[in-house]
Design goal:
heterodimer; A: mainly alpha; MetI-like fold; two-stranded antiparallel ribbon; about 70% helix; globular; B: alpha/beta; D-Maltodextrin-Binding Protein, domain 2; twelve-stranded mixed beta sheet; 12 strands
């Protein structure tokens, strides 16, 4: 059963990912029918891309490189700068995400579950919406400066700086840290903490020895994913940072637009190599540091209102209050600005932009993009790809948590759909699927709804793997062994014993798979075979005109539809409190 | 949304999936009486006004034919990819080419993607200077001018390129990435025109020192400008037409032609070599050049007509401004140069 599923999954991955992407990458090493490493060498030894490494490889004396490295005049190159901003973005995302996870996992308050569902919202927003929200919040005439001005604290120039990129990346990725860490925290077994406490451990000591070891992998995992995402970031960098802060992906895009396939593929390979190396490093760490657990009776949540006015009760809550202010500025203010932009025009508040959506829906031509089909398609693709990605992810998680040599390598390769340049994936799908292949005189091409769902599922399943695998890995193997000894087939043991024990992770994985599908743009645009399969992000793109209002209104529709969907997924998923 | 509506939505969605799989949505196939027009998305979908629907209806009324639009997300590159992969091109005509596109396509394909337009009516009335294809494949149908738009309530924009380097205007200009945005590219080409290929990079170095902001797409730049991040933005000289339509304060939308010039960006259409209905495609090109269509296109696409005899509304010239001296590079001047100019610029501007 699991074996058959593994074969089907492999076929799907090869068909809609490895084969199409491989077709593009092969151009980096095969030029004019000749196998060569020349193109990759040219990219590696180009100081524009690789900075001091490139200078070294292109013949600069090692002495001069060392002097520049230690003299603070080192060139980073585009790749170096991309890694640098990704590292900063990762730190910012973790810093913004951890307190959120602490709040959601450890405290009880009205609306907690809804808030937890909605944490994923930023993750799906098109860059154009985020750019509008950020300019309105952090711009020179934005909310932040208005507040600072009122308080007499002066004026900050945040846009078109590295800081703007880092904050925008934190906006996108801190939710990832929150969601993954919360899932891990909710899977911590309360009895282990109680045992430690009964043996005389202080709360801090119990946290350090029992809870932290189970959280660290989730935090590092979300950090690794954040790095990979921000390393491949593209439109938001140009919208909020500016061209002088270009990332690798900007150049992959430009090279492909100019049909310089070999150089584009070589650069994208370098990008992929760095991301996968990081992922591999993390998985090696995870494999060595798996803590065993037998089950999950989650830790009881505390009330957000303090019981007593003691320092120990007040301090963490005051910290959370401070965090709330920062979170409101980074997350709520930009989203509120998006909402405001959708109802404002040159002469004040207006419903014109929503009026446009209604008109386009009712009077738009058949060949035009209309809002309702976009909503319907987005939901359809989201649900279908969730239904595909969830079992895919669980099966791959089960298979990759077995002990065998090279397990971390397999795990890293399974993450490839997250790490490959989106531009390369788009081109690969166009060539590999839409154009198809000539077989026995017939051109076999794959496009349309089924292909879109498959592509979305492939893009989303790595998340399911990454949130579910650590939980499965931590489970005491004797649980499955006793189930098998009692005659349960492997699949029954998985469904009845293992999955219920890691349920928060499964629901989180489902939310991720859905979010990836809702937010996906490139593959959808490439694979849609007529005007019939556009989604909400595609509609937003199409509604960008000389007035930005209509696109913003569509963006708000996406925001609302996605928010409702997240709440639905989590409600349907339920909240299981262990055994 | 409760569970029931959620399930109902899912059900509706599932039936759409079935429809999608069986290809009921159609489009793209070209029979004798079908004309497949490939173009960019905003030609048919732009919210302010897009000429696609009107054009389709008028052409179908006059000719016994059906017009189908194709708008792939990577636009012209989609057809180059098809050609390179040896896959049939299932469209008859591409609408929305500029000179730089044509150069780029020709430099990257061994065989031409398009065929000669041939003897089509109305070609005589195309303004001299707009014919940008030396091989007479592309027929211009409109032209735009890329200029500065500035907020007159905040400042008065300088009149020359040198003026942009004044301390007074530090951090005041937003432009776009010339490698991906046509306005950004036109502005870069204008600086090459002004300073020559040996001088434009020095000019940009000074401009960068004076705090120019270069963003990705026109939309990024225009949003930032509207939000007051900087008082000047590289945009179209027809900006006031839109400002007027949306009831904006016209003082905030002023046009500046640096050196009394603006970069002209003629847009053209051409028949694909693989076209299934090349004759119908030529009929369409003739139709687009008629005075009525030229006038309507100019209004709906908010560009200037390509012909001298377009039926324009009387007040058109009041809001849509054209420069005293349009400048542009010819196909021959761009060929072999433009990609190098852009690459040199990117390597200088993004270097770190």
């Amino acid at each position: 059963m699991l074996g058959a599923a593994a074969v089907l999954i492999s076929l799907l991955l090869v068909g809609v990912f490895y084969y199409p992407v491989g077709r593009v990458f092969v151009e980096a090493v095969v030029v004019g029918g000749q196998v060569t490493l020349g193109v990759i060498w040219d990219v590696l030894s180009d100081p524009f891309y690789t900075g001091e490494l490139g200078r070294l490889l292109s013949g600069a004396s090692p002495g001069s490189v060392v002097r520049r490295l230690f003299g603070g005049r080192a060139r980073l190159g585009i790749v170096g700068f991309t890694a640098y901003q990704a590292a900063l973005s990762t730190l910012a995302s973790v810093a913004l995400g951890l307190p959120g996870a602490y709040l959601l996992a450890r405290y009880e308050f009205p609306g907690r579950r809804t808030l937890r569902s909605l944490t994923m919202l930023p993750f799906v927003l098109p860059s154009m919406m985020v750019a509008i929200g950020f300019v309105a919040t952090f711009g020179s005439e934005g909310t932040l400066n208005a507040v600072l001005g009122t308080l007499g604290l002066g004026h900050v120039k945040l846009l078109y700086t590295l800081e703007a990129i880092v904050v925008a990346h934190a906006f996108y990725n801190a939710p990832l840290v929150v969601r993954m860490t919360t899932a891990a925290w909710e899977s911590v077994d309360a009895s282990a903490v109680e045992t430690a406490r009964s043996l005389g451990a202080s709360p801090l000591h119990a946290f350090r020895t029992v809870v932290a070891p189970q959280l660290v992998p989730a935090v590092l995992m979300s950090a690794a994913l954040t790095f990979v995402f921000t390393f491949g970031s593209f439109p938001i960098v140009l919208a909020l940072g500016g061209y002088q802060l270009s990332t690798v992906e900007v150049f992959v895009y430009q090279l492909i637009r100019d049909f310089s396939y070999a150089e584009a593929a070589a650069l994208a390979l370098l990008e992929l190599g760095i991301s996968l190396a990081l992922m591999y490093g993390y998985l090696r760490y995870e494999a060595r540091h798996a803590a065993r657990t037998r089950g999950a009776r989650p830790l009881p949540r505390k009330s957000l209102l303090p019981d007593r006015l003691t320092g120990r009760e007040l301090l963490p809550r005051l910290g959370l209050a401070a965090y709330g202010v920062v979170a409101a500025l980074v997350f709520l203010a930009p989203i509120a600005s998006m909402l405001y932009a959708s109802v404002s025009g040159p002469t004040g508040l207006t419903l014109d932009h929503f009026q446009f959506l209604v008109e386009r829906q009712t009077t738009g031509a058949q060949f035009q993009v209309r809002p309702l089909p976009a909503i319907r398609n987005s939901l359809l693709f989201g649900v279908a790809s969730l239904a595909l990605a969830l079992p895919m992810g669980v099966v791959v998680a089960v298979l990759t948590t077995r002990d065998y040599r090279g397990r971390s390598l397999v795990g890293a390769v399974a993450m490839a759909p997250l790490a490959v340049s989106g531009i390369v994936v788009g081109l690969g799908l166009l060539r590999g699927l839409v154009f198809g292949a000539e077989i026995a005189g017939h051109r076999i091409a794959v496009d349309g709804a089924a292909a879109i769902v498959a592509a979305h599922a492939v893009a989303g399943y790595p998340f399911v793997v990454r949130v579910v695998a650590p939980g499965l890995d931590r489970l005491d193997p004797s649980l499955v062994e006793s189930a098998r000894a009692l005659g349960a087939p492997r699949i029954r043991a998985l469904l009845d014993v293992e999955l219920p024990l890691v349920w928060p992770a499964v629901v989180a994985g489902a939310a991720f798979a859905f979010a990836i599908s809702i937010g996906e743009f490139t593959a959808t645009a490439v694979l849609a075979n007529s005007t019939g399969q556009y989604t909400m992000p595609v509609a937003i793109q199409r509604f960008i005109g000389r007035r930005l209002g209509p696109a913003t209104a569509m963006g708000v529709v996406l925001l609302v539809v996605t928010a409702l969907s997240f709440v639905c997924i989590e409600r349907l998923g339920g909240e299981r409190d262990g055994l | 949304m409760d569970r029931r509506t959620f399930l109902a939505t899912t059900g509706a969605a599932a039936s759409t999936l079935a429809a999608g799989c069986t290809g009921l949505t159609g489009g793209g196939s070209s029979g004798e009486d079908t004309l497949v027009v490939a173009t960019y998305g905003s030609f048919i979908d732009s919210p302010s006004s897009s000429p696609g629907a009107w054009l389709k209806q008028r052409f179908e009324e006059e000719h016994d034919a059906r017009v189908v639009f194709q708008t792939p997300s990577n636009e012209l590159n989609h057809y180059v990819e098809r050609k390179k992969a040896g896959v049939d091109i299932d469209a008859d005509l591409y609408l929305g080419l500029n000179t730089e596109d044509l150069v780029r396509v020709d430099e990257n394909l061994e065989d031409s993607l398009f065929v000669e337009a041939g003897d089509i009516g109305g070609l005589d009335s195309v303004k001299s200077g707009l014919q940008f294809d030396p091989q007479d494949r592309a027929v211009p149908y409109d032209t735009g001018y890329v200029s500065l738009v500035y907020d007159g309530t905040q400042m008065t924009a300088p009149e020359t390129f040198e003026g942009l380097l004044d301390e007074e205007f530090e951090g005041d200009l937003i432009a776009q990435n010339p490698a991906s945005s046509s306005t950004g590219r036109a502005f870069l080409l204008h600086t090459v025109h002004e300073y020559g290929e040996d001088g434009y990079l020095d000019y940009w170095e000074n401009l960068q020192d004076n705090g120019v902001t270069v963003l990705g797409e026109w939309g990024d730049a225009y949003t930032a400008w509207e939000e007051g991040e900087a008082p000047m933005v590289v945009s179209y000289s027809t900006d006031r037409v839109f400002a007027d339509q949306s009831g904006s304060n016209m003082e905030k939308h002023k046009i500046r032609f640096l050196e009394d010039e603006a970069y002209a960006n003629p847009e053209g259409m051409a028949v694909f070599e693989d076209a299934a209905s090349p004759d119908l495609a030529r009929d369409f090109m003739e139709f687009v050049l008629t005075p009525e269509v030229q006038g309507e296109l100019a209004v709906q696409n908010v560009q200037f007509p390509a012909t001298t005899d377009a039926d324009l509304p009387d007040d058109y010239a009041e809001l849509a401004q054209s420069p005293p001296t349009p400048v542009t590079f010819s196909y021959d001047e761009l060929q072999g140069s433009v990609s190098g100019w852009i690459e040199d610029w990117t390597r200088q501007f993004a270097s770190n």
